[in-house]
Amino acid sequence: MPESKKQIILEYCRAKAWERIGRQEIRALENELRARLGAKTSASYIAGVLRAAGKNVEYYDRFADPPIEEPYASRLRDLLEFHDLASAEASLRKLDAIYREYRDASDRAGTRWVRTLLQKGKLRASSLAANPRVNPQKRAEKAEIATWFRIWLETPDLFLDWLDLRKVSEEFRRLFCP
Questions:
Q1: Closest CA to 80 of 134, 125, 49
Q2: Domain assignment present for 64
Q3: Do 77 and 161 belong to one domain?
């Protein structure tokens, strides 16, 4: 059975016994993955795998997941999803509920982390929507999802009502309800 990217990353890191992983180590892992798999792997993916494994990663870019502090990390882990419209809506509804809970408790750090996740989602969805290698229908879906994130970030108190109206609009139905 061929090794997965994740396995290669973790084994290589273990073999090097790195205590701290920065830009140089990420580049070494990119080169190792390219040599072994023949494909380019994003630095943000590598950083994410290593962070999830509990490694001390000191690498940040606009696509990498932010290192969220506890107790927020446990609660917000894996909540940002936008594989399709349904998963994006479910994710936004969950994050919105958590945001409101933090806001009602005057927890500024909690509300900031929710907003940070949604900003990251907007950036990633926008990037996929602009990528010509992505299927045109999927690009349209990601552009729609990026708009959802943008609207939430601009007007969180109105977002859920806006989303309900958007989903019954003629334009939305024409684009996403065959």
A1: 125
A2: no
A3: yes
Measured in degrees and rounded to the nearest 5, phi and psi for residue 126 equal -65, -40
Look up the pTM and report it: 0.71
pLDDT digits (tens, 9 = 90+) for 15-47: 999 888 988 999 999 999 999 988 888 888 898
d(CA 171, CA 134): 22
Tokens of 17: 């016994």
Residue 67 has pLDDT above 80, yes or no: no
Query: d(Cα 151, Cα 46) in Å, to the nearest integer?
Result: 30
In the DSSP assignment, the letter for residue 61 is -
Neighbour-count burial of 89, counting CB atoms closer than 10 A to its CB (0-12 exposed, 13-18 middle, 19+ buried): middle
Overall average pLDDT of the 82-101 stretch: 96
80 near 96, Cβ under 8 Å?
no
Asked if 9 and 86 sit in the same domain, the reply is no
Domain count, the chain: 2
Range of the domain at 17: 5-52
Number of Cβ within 10 Å of residue 133's Cβ equals 6
Structure tokens at 28: 């070494």
Both 117 and 170 in a single domain?
A: yes
> What's the helix, strand, coil split of the chain in %, to 5?
70, 0, 30
Query: Is the domain of 39 the same as that of 88?
Result: no
Contact 123, 135 (CB under 8 A): no
